Amino acid sequence: MRLDHVALTVSDREISAAFYSRYFGLDQRLHEDDHLLILSGEGGGLLALSEGDVPGDLPRTNHFGFQASSSAEVLELREAFARDQVEEAEFQPTGPTRVQVFDPDGNRVEAYAF
Hints:
alpha/beta; four-stranded mixed beta sheet; 2 helices
């Protein structure tokens, strides 16, 4: 089986949708109603966003990741995060190259490439 979707509780669906569209290409709205917004993109997989109270202080190991096509793509994304003042949580330049940032609600999101 392959992982199909991630579901998050967020404080503002539109802010989160804009973040995931801009940085991770999840720009297709597959479903939207009063309770749920489901996003997808060219890479496949779904991100389901529901508005509500966001839990705080999650451990650093709680995160999800997007596999980039190359280390250069990860580094370009890292530059975009820095330019846009997205808070970086972790960076590893080699083996695999990865950058982890906080989304608008403090969820850790990673981009990586082997």
